[in-house]
Amino acid sequence: MITIRTFNRAQLEKFVNSQEYAGLDFLPISRHRAMSQVRNPRVLDHHILLFMAYENDVPVAYLGALPDRIFLTGDNSTECAWMSCIWVHEQYRGKQLAQKLVESCYMAWDKHLLGTEFAESSGRLFDKMGIFDDLGNKEGVKLYIRSDLYNILPPRKPVFKHIRGFLKVFDWLTNLLFDLRFLFIKKDFQNFKHMSSIDGEVRDFIMRHQENELFRRSPDDLQWIIDNPWVIAGKEDDMSRKYHFSSVDASFDFLPYTLHDSNRNIVAFLIFTKRNGVLKLPYCYMSEGAAGLVRRCIEHFAIRWRINSFICFHPSLVPMFRGKRNIALLTRPFRRRYIISRVLKDKIHTERTFVQDGDADTAFT
Q: d(Cα 50, Cα 294) in Å, to the nearest integer?
């Protein structure tokens, strides 16, 4: 018999600090991710954050939900949730457990569900269920700036796991040559300032440049994201190996910066993530005409931080990186699909549908 157990904010915090949690064969959520969820400014006490499926009292599957608010028209908004991290134990697959979890989440969230960056098998499930529509696709770009075979190849084929030492040496030697090209690029870019916290001036700038967004992160929302990562720098241990999604990596940083014009006026606020040589820009707020300066900033940090690849979906920046003249060795198109429950989609009555790269749980990965 299949039963679904749910956890709201208080229940989730109690669960991840319990002996039951510590004794599980697999973890449905990492402890630091759970605490990040608990601190989410958009979480209310009744919101369900985790769904676990049990067969005869044995945990066999789970689905996470990330609470959010979506703006339907003007300042009118409603509660919603992003589906996150669906997993079913291999011995229990084929029993429609994933579908049962999605249905449970769908009802618990008043049919207000969204999703993105899901596995291909999950996408087929969502399409089959008939309760979701496409919210749209984001057309992005991935810049391969330096050799990174050590991280790219092993997840694709098991054979590469046995030669990771060789791949690491190959990357190091190859990048000695590739990095010579950076010697001929100007390094006088200084129009930026690192922000340890979002101050009053930046708060005002953000609020003035988010009118077209569906999810409109407040400065407090952004500060929560920066202060509460789901992936932390460190080595794998027994607990992280029990969790089938990312919880630790060699490095992970949120890096907030302001950009300024010649008169020291803020023209952009950027939040980068730098994870094990991969750079992303989950949040970008910029004045009209500032895209060129933002591109210069991205290329400056990519060189300074020895970034291996950069991924971006911002519609004002992607065309700038698609051309032949950029710092990449190779440029490839990237696409991200977004789905939304039909019930929620029917309530949206606005043409302002911009989605930041970091909306959903993508800022955390």
A: 37
Pair 37, 6: CB distance under 8 Å: no
> How far apart, in whole angstroms, are the C-alpha atoms of residue 268 and residue 205?
8
Q: How many CB atoms lie within 10 A of CB 195?
A: 17
Angle at 339 between CA 215 and CA 36, to 5 degrees: 50
The count of other CB atoms within 10 Å of the CB of residue 242 is: 16
What is the identity of the amino acid at 256? P
Question: Mean pLDDT over residues 93-98, rounded?
Answer: 93
Q: What is the mean pLDDT of residues 189-208?
A: 92
- Whether the CB-CB separation of 303 and 182 falls below 8 Å is answered with yes
3-state secondary structure of 62: strand
More confident call, 178 vs 280: 280
pLDDT at 324: 64
**Taking the CA of residue 363 as centre, how many other CA atoms within 13 Å lie in the half-sphere pointing to its CB?**
29
Q: Considering only CA atoms, which of 310, 313, 300 is closest in space to residue 330? A: 310
d(CA 102, CA 113): 9
- Tabulate helix, strand, coil % of the chain (nearest 5): 35, 30, 35
Q: Which of 129, 109, 33 is CA-nearest to residue 69?
A: 109
Tokens of 355: 């989605």
Domains of the chain: 2-136 (3.40.630.30), 140-337 (3.40.630.30)
- Quote the DSSP letter at residue 354: B
Q: How far apart are CA 268 and CA 288, in angstroms?
A: 10
